[in-house]
Amino acid sequence: MKQSIMVFFLMLSFLINGQNLYIKTYGNKENKAIIFIHGGPSGNSTLFEGTTAQKLANKGFYVLVYDRRGEGRSLDPHAKFTYQEAFQDLNSILKKYNLKKVTLIGHSFGGLVATLYTAKYPQNVSNLILAGALFSQQETYDHILNSLKKSHKGDSKTLNKISYVEKLDKNSAEYRKHCFDLASDNDYFKMPNPTKASKKLYSDYEAGKFYKTNIRNKNAPLLFYKNEKQNNIDSRPFLKEIKAKGIPVYAIYGQDDRIFSASQIKSIKNIAGENHFVLLENCSHYLFVDQQNKFLSKIKMWLK
């Protein structure tokens, strides 16, 4: 099994900056190009690729899916996990596939990568789409902890854990991990009422080949916080600059993605604009699975 998985990696990867970077394309290369940027650090694109990439391509797009260097299937023991490293690889992908301009879809932590890349290389980006994307990190962590304190009054075990987390260095991998672990343990990332369609998508993914390559590099967050100075930022000033340069910013979020406060969602809506924002009902963090048809329809409407 390990040997076959490695062969699979090599078949679907190419050499960038001396490293094997996993990337797969879907659709006609003559169509508008979209690059999906996954969450993390320590994430990968397997869920999006296994459920949504081909369906998005079927809407008339050229979709590129990849795993960042050192994460997922892009094995690299020397990866630094910095934004600059991610930018270098994105530029190499554009060069490799002869892409002058692309639409970026940034999911979760990938939204920070996509935003900072667009701010630095606006000439390479035609549209920026934030999909359940992080943008004000400390506000997100504060909201998770404060909302849990309210919902767990009298629960000394949970309250003690929250108290412990609040005393940690807020610019540390440990602090971030504990915040998101608490959110996950309390179903902040789950849609409240799974539909028949979403259940099938998750089930098919878990039974398929992409789930078998759902690799998580546990060292990635530690190295990110060690090597990257911008490790707890608010990207909204960058988003405003991007809009001022004439690059459309779109935002699509799940109404039940509980890691974001109502005030955070309102602020990102104000930046994107009424016609460039949508809040999907019965939908949490993995909105391209929770409400896939609505997600795909909105992307097509915005870009077509």
TrEMBL record:
GO annotation, biological process: proteolysis
GO MF term set: peptidase activity
Domain AB hydrolase-1, chain residue ranges per copy: 33-290
One annotated Gene Ontology cellular component of this protein: membrane
Keyword terms: Hydrolase
Entry protein name: Alpha/beta hydrolase
The keyword Mitochondrion is assigned to this record: no
Gene3D superfamilies per the UniProt record, alphabetical: alpha/beta hydrolase
Assigned protein family: Belongs to the peptidase S33 family.
SUPFAM superfamilies per record: alpha/beta-Hydrolases (SSF53474)
Keyword set includes Metal-binding: no
Listed InterPro entries: AB_hydrolase_1, AB_hydrolase_fold, AB_hydrolase_sf, Peptidase_S33
One Pfam family recorded for the sequence: Abhydrolase_1
Taxonomic classification: Bacteria, Pseudomonadati, Bacteroidota, Flavobacteriia, Flavobacteriales
